[in-house]
Amino acid sequence: MKRPTIADIARRAGVSKVAVSYALNDRPGVSEAKRAVIKAIAEEIGWRPNSAARALSGARAHTIGLTVCRPARILGVEPFFMELISGIESELSARSYALMLQVVTDPGQEVEIYRRWWGERRVDGAILVDLRFSDPRVTELEELGLPVVVLGHPSEAGTLVPVWSDDTVAVREAVEYLTALGHRRIARVAGLPELVHTVLRDQAFTAVCRELGLESHTIMHTDYTGDEGARATRRLIGSPARPTAIVYDNDIMAVAGLSAAQEMRLDVPGDLSIVAWDDSPLSQVVRPALTALSRDIPAYGAHAARTLLSLVAGEGEVTGGEITGFEDRAARLVPRGSTAPPPAG
């Protein structure tokens, strides 16, 4: 079936194509009665505006861009990004916006993609993830003028609008909880070391461990995959100062760590306590169910999308020369079956 055109509407309505264009774009030049007839015909035959033509005319694309520098195979099993995207989509779809997603292998590619999308008027704004220290993407996007919301701490977001949560509060709650159970040797299996949120969590972990006078605390960095989570767990279990509790930066690694501990004949939580970050359904279907730092990730994505759409619409609040962002709720600890007091001795 041929795609309906403005010419088809004009023939049905008995008017010129110019009149149809005026009516569909709510411009003066046609009567309200004729405008209503034209729009009814357009709806009846299933006409939709051509996005390329709208871009040429300077109209909005009604699309938001998101690039992710992770292997595509990881995104398929990473609950965080799936839940984040679901939250973004829930807000965009309610406002008839689309999400344009592209996976890249290098952060430098992200800027080129955003530059192309913006130049071709394919997006009205973008969401930036995996914020780094002195992130060159921030500077490039500031110069580009593309409306952008950063999922990351305001300290490294430059003039871009940040949406973030205070991870230090969650780290402290987890370590204090494990210490209250009696643990004195706690390890952290972290994500990518170049990311801002990883470093902030590392710093908070080290500070609270020292403050509480723990015997030892260890940090191991990974790429967030289950393989790396299991490998880090085996190394920690095999170390001379074996930890009695491990906090993981995502639930994929925590589940893999649980399996690795059980393979090495350790009882969870009798011999080893495990805490996961993010708390997807995956944390709750394994046995024992994982104690987790829980946060509403879909809501986090929705807040980012809502903030960006406000920015695109020119509604961003400016206070003291700086555009304000949105601080989401910090993750909270949800104790389950994977944590208990450490073994005696």
UniProtKB/TrEMBL annotation:
This is LacI family transcriptional regulator. It comes from the Bacteria. Residues 4-58 form the HTH lacI-type domain. The lineage of its organism: Bacteria, Bacillati, Actinomycetota, Actinomycetes, Streptosporangiales. PANTHER family: ALANINE RACEMASE, LACI-RELATED TRANSCRIPTIONAL REPRESSOR. It comes from Planobispora rosea. The keyword Amino-acid biosynthesis does not apply. The keyword Transcription regulation applies. Keywords: DNA-binding, Transcription, Transcription regulation. Gene3D superfamilies: 3.40.50.2300, lambda repressor-like DNA-binding domains.
